[in-house]
Amino acid sequence: MSQKNNAIKNILIVNVYGSSNSGDAALLDSLINSIYLAFGSNINIEGIAYLPELEKEKYPAIYWYRRFGTSYQKNIFLRRFLNLYYQILCLLYFGILNLGFKPFNFFALPTSQRQGIDSLFNSDIVISCPGGYFEDSNYSYISNLIPIYFACKFNKIVTLAPQSIGPINSRIGKLLVKSTLSKVDLICLREKISYYFTKDVLDIPQNKLVLTHDMAFFLKSSVGLDKNYYIQKVKDDLNFDLTKPFVGLSVISWSFPQSQDPISARQKYIQNLAILCKLIIDNLSMPVLIINQVNEDLPATLELNAQVSSGLFFYDHHFRDLHFLKFIISQSSVFIGSRFHSCIFSLMSQVPTIAISYLPKTRGIMQELNLSERVHEIDAFNPESIFKQVLNDLNNKDQVSELIRNKVSDYQGLYPQFSELLQKTQNNENS
Questions:
Q1: Triad 181, 81, 164: Cα angle to 5°
Q2: Distance CA 382, CA 236 (A)
Q3: CA angle at residue 379 from 378 to 385, to 5 degrees?
Q4: Is there a contact between 89 and 103 (Cβ–Cβ < 8 Å)?
Q5: Rounded to whole angstroms, how far apart are CA atoms 104 and 114?
Q6: Which has the minimum average pLDDT: 11-15, 104-108, 404-408?
Q7: Is the pLDDT of residue 57 over 60?
Q8: Eight-state DSSP code of residue 339
């Protein structure tokens, strides 16, 4: 680990997607707890987030800035133009700071983004938020490289909290990611697929790489959870009884970027989910409840609802608090998840869980848990096979729950926790 500052006092978290996705919210919550555990409660934390206003509500003690090079215009063409424009301005602002000057804001760069750059310049350590955003299903991974690149240029300690990295298919994309990540101090990877992609394909030195956990497995339980309130609230909102057996499900509005026919691939995914839901409803007379981890998935949920068309099919159109969502999932008899953090919430509650993998991270983490037989690929899963798995889980629920409990416990002890890795950073700085 590089010794670049005498002491760590100011920490900047970058690449925060955060509270608009319950999975990312869990990762951020666990990251902040890990930082305080490693450095103590007097450390100064600031953050750069996609929606800083949401993070301010949840973490008022942390000062939040807007993500570099990001516009919030509703018009997609204007938004893309302004994204590029702001990214260029950020690069110019970074460059002037790097030369040792304090530039005026004559570039019309939004104040929050300029202040975020100043925060990066004044930080001791920059931590890239845990997640799976260095993959090229869209181009946002390029924006996520910007703060990391300049943190390295400013000679900061740079750490990537537990990540999934890849797939990255374009040669230019691989070159950009490699050239940036090769300069960081520590890259924490949450599964072996990403580890070997980063080591062998991106050719990042192995001494920078550490295998660790997905941080959602260490999310703290909510204090004073009002289960009766949650049960009544769902009953009022959805006319659904969480106290009776049901199958939980999460869906994803995935674009199938690597498919030769993305539209057909998406239709097939929805159709297969519809077949699976009908098998459960028709054969078991058991309701199916679609949870809402990300509001962006609602279009896929509505398409599925139209195809199933049953009085035993329910979906939650409300975006729930993280711990509320976890509680709903925990009440499932069996859970089938396309959003992987919904699967993690289910596994943490010892619910029999079946994962539908849309990116390698899902299969990779389930392999780490020794639960590979519970993963099905999003573009090739057989609804009849999953239904048989559901039947087996329902018939052997206690045994399966105990198996999952043991697998999760083993996994949590498999690697060093991120707080321990951060503590080593502090120890190296003080040595």
A1: 25
A2: 35
A3: 70
A4: no
A5: 10
A6: 104-108
A7: yes
A8: S
